[in-house]
Design goal:
about 120 residues; four-stranded antiparallel β-sheet; 8 strands
Amino acid sequence: MRDTTNPTYSGPDGTYLDVRPAPARAPEGAVLLNVSGHAFGLKHIVIVKLVDLLAGRSRGRELHVAISEDAVLILRVVVSMEGADFAVFNDGTPTHQVFVPAEHGLGVASQIAVAGMVS
């Protein structure tokens, strides 16, 4: 993943969320997501659900996704009126996190959608 001197969203506490198209060898529509230093790929179907959640088009308020084959690493996104909390859990313990305020939610959602269309 590229350097994060200009991530998609930077929090005042130094946390960040960065979104990039996946490399050409990745499945079509995949996206690379970096949650405060933990980078991983997400498949197209997860991207669709994540964009719907962030854009307010989802019935739910949470998304849990295994980001490792053995399901030890989990991405959890919780959306509230204040914004979206992205957290990576390793065996149940949060290790990387960023809170994206609601006023940045649509911008982040659109960056994720665009990255998924580019790959």
